[in-house]
Amino acid sequence: MKQTNLEVKLIGENGNIFNLLGIVSKELKQKGFLDEANQLWKDVQENAKSYEEALTIIQEYVVII
């Protein structure tokens, strides 16, 4: 996985982790990071044991603003 340095606005959004993943995934795909979007979902499903861990994984892909 690589950090894309893509800024994604999540502050103020519905905090449901699936909603946040959807927002980030959509932004990644729109900016041409299809592989990263797919890998993000896989990484969260396989490695996140908590909400905080899922957010940490998201931050490995994008910059949350």
Give an overview in words.
The protein has one domain (about 5-65). The chain is globular, with a radius of gyration of 10 Å. The chain is mainly alpha-helical. Helices cover about 60% and strands about 10% of the residues. A two-stranded parallel ribbon has the order 1-2. The model has no long low-confidence stretch (mean pLDDT about 95).
In short:
Helix content is 60%, strand content 9%.
Overview features:
3 helices; 2 strands; 60% helix; 65 residues; globular; mainly alpha; two-stranded parallel ribbon
Describe the secondary structure blueprint for this structure:
Elements: E1 6-8, H1 17-30, H2 34-47, H3 51-61, E2 62-64
Parallel strand pairs: 1-2
Number of domains: 1
Measured by DSSP, the beta-strand proportion falls in: 5-15%
Overall shape: it is: globular
End-to-end distance, in Å?
Answer: 20 Å
Number of strands: 2
Radius of gyration: 10 Å
Low-confidence segments, given as residue ranges, are: none
- What spatial order of strands do you see in the largest sheet? 1-2
DSSP helix fraction = 55-70%
Order of helices and strands: EHHHE
Give the biggest sheet: 2 strands, parallel
The number of helices is: 3
> Structural class from helices and strands?
mainly alpha
Mean of residue pLDDT values: 95
